[in-house]
Hints:
The chain is α+β, with helices and mostly antiparallel strands. It has 2 domains: 3-147, CATH 2.40.50.140; 170-330 and 373-487, 2-Layer Sandwich (BirA Bifunctional Protein, domain 2), CATH 3.30.930.10. It is 36% helix and 25% strand. It contains 16 helices and 18 strands. The strands form 4 sheets. Strands 6-10-11-18-17-16-15-14 form an 8-stranded mixed sheet, sandwiched between helices. Strands 1-2-3-5-4 form a 5-stranded mixed β-barrel. Strands 7-9-8 form a 3-stranded antiparallel sheet, with no helix packed on it. Strand 4 (115-124) and strand 5 (130-141) form a beta hairpin.
Amino acid sequence: MDKDNLGGEKAILEERRKKLDLLRDKGSAYGNTFKPKNNSKELQDEYGKFNKVELLEKDIKNISIAGRIILKRVMGKASFATIRDSFGDIQIYVTKNNVDDEVYEDFKTWDLGDIVGVSGTLFRTQRDELTIDAWDIEMITKSLRPMPEKFKGLTDIEARYRQRYLDLMTNTFSKEVFIKRTKIIDSMRKIMNKVGYLEVETPMMHPLAGGAVARPFVTKHNALGQDLYLRIAPELYLKRLLVGGFDKVFEINRSFRNEGLSTKHNPEFTMMEWYEAYASMPDQMNLTKEIILNAASAAGCKSKITWDENEINLDNFNQSTLTDLVLEHNKDLSKDVIANKEALSHFLKNKKIKIKKNWDVGRMLLEVFEETVESRLIDPTFVTEYPVEVSPLSRRNQDNPDFADRFELFIGGKEFANGFCELNDPDDQASRFEKQVEAKDSGDKEAMDYDHDYITALEHGMPPAVGVGMGVDRLVMLLTNQSSIRDVLLFPQLKSNE
């Protein structure tokens, strides 16, 4: 902010503080007795259909509403103002004829941003705008700082994230995004309840880093004298519940991954994970589809939507194996090449795709997919048959043990869900944990720890099951046409501006 703006804001702050002092002297600076009976949306929905004459005949008295002054026009003995509550805007009309002279004179000095309570009668103005004719108005909260300019709003994108309260105060579109977010999450919960899942809560602080391949946040528990890890994923705890006898469980959870900030990633994010015993992958892919379509309906979306300039048809869900997609989009590859470590490594180097020495064929195949295929999957596409090497918690396919019974859903070139038949063989799981430990010892900061208690749980017997994790933030981005995850998080993580 330049010096002129700083000086101007300081002068406004000083002037408003003087007004606050006067209000304090009258004992009316921060009132807590006004209780609104109505809101702007309710009034518009119920009475907006009536014309001027009809409203006069109905004589709608005793309207009571509270909100922030966002517009004000003082005209001698009569004034108009627009106030905004949680649901929208409505105009008020204040005159000396209807309120005390002292109240009216006070009202003329009130500022944009002040929160006021209004009681009165509904009518329509000469311009046919639904309006409250005030017979009483009172100050509820004095605003000391100026609102962003009405037509410019918060033009600084970063300021919108750092001062979300100002963004919500002035930007009705931004506010609508977060209302839709709540509706989307509510729709997801309703679907799970409808099909018989039990909602549960599992720990957010773990003694080990596990549940997914990602770098964890580490914290210290002073009383226990040990390190704890913020939850990367709830997976291993939810599967312990399968061992305990819950056959269908889900959790809408906050998870944390110690990774960089971008338009796609925030270190704290929301997922929904669910697990069902004795389920099949096709059943869970159908449930995943139903969740997304139901969320789209809750957000008011049609079947054809636009996201990141891509036209997406939610009526067109596709399915293909990872290998088939790699071959389809890389005509210079063959099944023989992708099965040969040396040949596949040579292909990656020619494509200038970096690889690591400890990668096997499966990990390199996934890299080819991520670099050459993923961004092209615009319409919803279930990708199946992932290499076991990159699926440490998935069950092997009985016919081809190099691949896992796993699927991922991609929409608009981005991953939305990850599901697989759960590995319930304790010996196989122990072996894969050992490989994760070897990777961690070799410097892989995203590798999992060896979870001995989880192996013990599997030794008690976990029924065959399918589990799915879905990114809630990304789903909201899709259904509100937002290109940055920061636009669907009320308070995204940002670099310090100091």
